[in-house]
Amino acid sequence: MPKQFLTIFNNKPLIQQTLERLKGFFKNDERILIIPKQLKSITHRFAKGSTIFVEPMRRNTAPAICLTAMTLKRKYGDGIIHVMPADHMIGPTSSFHKALACGEGYAVKGRLITYGIKPTRPETGYGYIKVGKRVDKEEPRSKAVPVFTSDGFLEKPTLTRARQYLHSGKYLWNAGIFTFRISTLLSEIKQYIPAVFEGVKEYLATENIRYFARIPDISIDYGIMEKSSRINVVLGKFTWDDVGSWSALGRYFKKDHDHNICIGDAMGLEMHDTYIYTYGAPVRVYGVNDLIIVASPYGTLVCKKEKAADLKKLLH
Predict the structure, then answer these.
(1) Which is it for the CA torsion 86, 233, 155, 66, positive or negative?
(2) What is the mean pLDDT of the chain?
(3) pTM of the model
(4) What is the band of 166 on the pLDDT scale with cuts at 50, 70, 90?
(5) Contacts of 137 (CB under 8 A, 6+ apart)
(6) The sheet that has 261-263: what strands, in order across it?
(7) Is the N or the C terminus of the chain less surrounded, counting Cβ atoms within 10 Å?
């Protein structure tokens, strides 16, 4: 079972926390979950009242967002969409909503909005954004949500480079949250990744999955955000953590004297720097180092901690 549906952080599944975070900013029928077809039944259990779009097949974030944008435009016309993952920890909600409202104001004008977070540690598992000049001028600086131009997106850095980013003050964590005007987004997709635009268009016209299968596997960051000249960066003045990687357990749970974390019916001997999470199945470990072990009735995962951020490769 994907981590979004497990009760690990704050005694609630991450998908439930995400949906609750949207209350007061979106109506229930304005919440749209984009999911692979194998998660359709379990998502319905957690997202009653929300709209669910099922991807024909996994093709990364750019095709999924393009599919959603085209579908919404055909049904409702132009409008603003906010795009966010369901495996983030964010708070307080009021500050998050304030940032989204700010981003919406710029998206209406044709800007592509991404959200950056001021780093608190030299993190090597996140992408970064280098910010340029500040552009918000309508409100006093003391009240405004800071908005910047973008001087570039940067991939996950080495530890040395991450320390440089932290101390420079010019780099923000890339939160992977976006706000777009649908017409602007589709125009940029058509310009920078036309194969995605045409592939999704043909799929919607025919409902033939072979057209979707031909679409390149490409992220919205790489396909659009790293190329467009329409980017603005909203500084998120809220706490944020991407807990999409199992290594995030180390930031939320107490470690023993050998730097291990055991959650659930888990025990180990001669074990070091290892995280175990088990849901419904006992786990016993002997003589291992630097592993992440996850067990549930739905399956088992074992990987080196250093590979935790690359687990998406197993899904293709």
Answers:
(1) positive
(2) 91
(3) 0.86
(4) very high
(5) none
(6) 261-263, 275-278, 291-296, 299-304
(7) C
